[in-house]
Design brief:
mainly alpha; disordered C terminus
Length: 148
C-alpha cells in the first residue's frame, strides 16, 4: 500500500512537473531557463510516478532530499529570472513575465520575451520544498505506519 506521504509527494511532483513543462512550452523562445525547467519537469514527473510504485522503496530516504533539490533548482531559476541574470528571461520583462501593462500581442516585450519570473512556479517550488521536508522527516518515523 502506498503511504499518505508518498501520495502527497507524488501529487506535488505531478503538479510541479506538469507546470514546469507547460511553462517551458509556452515561452516565446526557449532559453537556458526554459531548458532547465523542461528537463526538471520531466525528472519531477518521473519521480512522481516512481513514488506510486514499489520502486519507491529502492529510493528509500533519498526521495525527500531529491524533492528538496528539485525545489531548490526551481527557486534558483525563478530568482535568476526575476533579477534578469538568467539568459532567456526576455528583454526588459523584469518581473512581469514578458508582458507589462499596455503591451499588446504585436508590440512591446511580449513578442521578444522568453520565460519570465513566474509567481506560480515559485509557490509550487515552495510547496515542493515543504513536501521534501515532510518526506525526509517522516521517512524514519511513520513511513511504515502509512505516512502522515
Amino acid at each position: 500500500m502506498v503511504s499518505n506521504t508518498r501520495l502527497y509527494g507524488a501529487s506535488i511532483a505531478f503538479a510541479s512537473g506538469t507546470y514546469s513543462l507547460w511553462s517551458a512550452s509556452t515561452a516565446t523562445r526557449m532559453g537556458a531557463s526554459g531548458w532547465v525547467m523542461a528537463l526538471l519537469g520531466v525528472v519531477v514527473l518521473v519521480h512522481g510516478v516512481v513514488l506510486l510504485t514499489d520502486y519507491a522503496d529502492r529510493l528509500g530516504g533519498a526521495s525527500g532530499p531529491l524533492m528538496i533539490g528539485y525545489a531548490a533548482v526551481m527557486l534558483l531559476n525563478q530568482a535568476l529570472l526575476g533579477t534578469g541574470m538568467m539568459p532567456g528571461s526576455g528583454t526588459g520583462s523584469g518581473m512581469t513575465g514578458g508582458m507589462s501593462a499596455g503591451d499588446g500581442m504585436m508590440g512591446g516585450s511580449a513578442m521578444t520575451a522568453g520565460m519570465g519570473w513566474d509567481a506560480g512556479m515559485a509557490f509550487l517550488a515552495l510547496l515542493m520544498l515543504a513536501s521534501g521536508v515532510i518526506m525526509t522527516r517522516s521517512h524514519g518515523s511513520d513511513a511504515s505506519a502509512g505516512g502522515m
